[in-house]
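Backbone Fold Data
Goal — fold tokens
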Amino acid sequence: MAAAMFALHLLPAFAQSPQAVSQADYIVALVNSEPITNAELGAAQLRMVAQMQAQKQPVPSADELRKGVLERMINERAQLQQAAEMGIKIEDYAVDQAEESIARQSQISVDELRLCLAKEGTDSKEFRKQLRDQLTLTRLREREVENRIKVTDQDVDRYISEEQSKNNDPLTQDINIAQILFAVPEKAGSAEIDAIGAQARQVLERARGGEDFAALVKEFSAAEKNNGGQLGLRRGDRYPTLFIDAIRTVPVGGIAQLVRSPAGFHVLKVVERRVPANLPQTVVQTHARHILLRTGPDLSQTAALARLADYRARIVSGKDDFQSIARQFSQDGSASQGGDLGWASPGSFVPEFEEVLARLRDGEISPPMVSRFGVHLIQLLERRRTELSPREVRESVRAMLKATKLDEAYADWARDIRERAFVEMRDPPG
């Protein structure tokens, strides 16, 4: 998960730090022998209140807040311990990127961000530690949960079939119906009703014969005559059931069978239908290219960052061009195409790559950035909005279903981590 995805969550949460909380300190809980102190809990509560107030959410009672925050701290502490056991480590440059992302969203520099935090009593080292913890948790969840989620072709077929069946239901469609009402007086006798019905049927046939419906409305309708008798675009479930049953299979421009209601006889014309767009129809695609350097024993991350910074300076100054450097130095399969990644839809790249790509303007080259694959230099060539092909619609549905399954799987995984952790609650001293 990219830094921006949790940036807004973290910034208000640092309104107070443990150093800013003046209260007696003691251990409130042990998580696999690792303590959570009262000072840490108090600071976390203050951060949570600040966050909820910033988002205009109701703040629970003091007891509920304390219990909820403590439980979240226990869960996170247990997950961080598992990450440590698995050897998950976050590089300093990834923390730098997260810090820069938060500053950028607040439209200030990193130095200004640190000054703001210092005024609120938060040490920059503590802030970066929290960022590192969040990145660690994200990487752990990606490894332990996200990679296990599978969406089958049958899952996609089932979802598309269900959505298409909804589209065929007029109750879920937006429909505009025009009507000619032949009102039947409340105390009308059978002969009068028959005469009114006969007139309505004659007008129905004239409408089906192609006469101007709006003109017939003005001549005969006992209801609204303006705007051709149109009732306005509305969901099908807001029309009388009699109307929906009558127009269920009538195409736009068609005239339904005569409808008899307690109000009288209705000649109905379907003016417009709008099918709900439950399936994705269009998407903004990006055309980009990149240079990738993979880090390892022969190339440190620091060296890779410096090398790509030099490449960027050469390209921006006009001394070299992106394509030639990519062909010569990139360690990605796209190197032979000058780093060209082609047109890509959202979700095609890992989140940290897409976050940087989303901020670029046409032709702009990013600073060197770190992903799970190495260090990149990215250039956005252009963007376009395009209609999705049937295959791309399926892939969009697959991504959406995966996100839904991910939420469910994460909840189960987090619950399992919590249940396996040894947690000892402590009472206040004395």
